[in-house]
Structure formats: C-alpha cells, structure tokens
Automatic annotation (TrEMBL):
It comes from the Bacteria. This is DUF3455 domain-containing protein. InterPro entries: DUF3455. It comes from Janthinobacterium agaricidamnosum NBRC 102515 = DSM 9628.
Length: 158
C-alpha cells in the first residue's frame, strides 16, 4: 500500500478514523465456509450462516506474510504475532461479493507486525457470498465452502 492510500471511495461506515496510518496491506486469498442453520426467531426456516474463513495473506508481490482464520476471526503474521477483532461496520461491495468491513483490533498476542494494530479493513472483495444451493430442513448442519479474495489493510495509530 502506498503512503498515498485514500479511503475516499469507501463508505463512511468502513473508513478508519483520522489519527491512524496504514501499517500493512495484504491480499487474502482463500475460502469461506458456510453452514446450513435454522434461522433465529423464524421456526422452520433455514439459511447459510458464516462459519469461518481460511485464507492466505500475501503481500503485493505474492509472498505469503500471514493467514486469516477463525472462529474467532484471527489475523496471524508469519512472525507469530496475531490479532482478533470486533466488527464495527460493513458496506455493500457489489453483487456476488462479501461486503467491505471495518473491525476494531483487540490487543495483539506476540510481538511482531501485528503489535499495535488498531483497525483492519476488508476492501476490494471478490466472491465469498453464501452458496446458492438449497439450505433447508433436509440438510441442517451441512457445510459448503466458497472461494474469495479481499484486501486486508492493517492500521496503527499515527
């Protein structure tokens, strides 16, 4: 990510507040698992629910620099440092793509590149939406994976 990175094209809900700087820009490539589950407060109805991600985090040259997995959602650097986070907001990213996302990082475990990360943005998403196949009373608990790609931008206090 260049020092000239701008959030101008993003929805306000997923913009990182002023006073932070880009510390790391990765491209996540992997899959998201969905599980067929009963809808809360909707007896007899089912839906594909997010069950967890599994993605390699690569730098802009394609070198693996970490991984993203869960639950809980965890971003881990090859240096062993890692963070979990709490979702703050999402915004639409176009048909067929998981939404852009802003999460607030919890304090990192281990010392390394994830130390001091305050926010993580998921942008430039491709794919990753729930399967189009049937989820119903005949297949509760069944799981399906879908491929996706997204840029994960890690921010630290300036």
């Amino acid at each position: 990510m260049s020092p000239n990175y701008t959030q101008d094209a993003l929805a306000d809900a997923v913009k990182v507040p002023a006073g932070h700087r880009v510390a790391l820009h990765t491209v996540g490539v992997g899959q998201i698992t969905y599980e067929c589950r009963a809808k809360k407060d909707a007896p007899g109805q089912f839906e594909w629910a997010f069950a967890g991600p599994d993605a390699a985090l690569n730098d802009r040259s394609g070198t693996r620099v970490g991984k993203y997995y869960g639950p809980p959602a965890t971003w881990e650097s090859v240096d062993g440092s890692k963070v979990t986070a709490t979702q703050l907001a999402v915004s639409p990213a176009g048909a067929g793509n998981i939404p852009h996302q802003l999460v607030k990082a919890n304090p990192a475990s281990g010392s390394g590149v994830m130390s001091g990360v305050t926010y993580i943005q998921r942008v430039a998403t491709i794919g990753g939406v729930a399967p189009a196949s049937v989820c119903g009373a005949a297949n509760p608990g069944s799981r399906q994976t879908v491929g996706y790609q997204a840029d994960y931008i890690f921010w630290k206090a300036a």
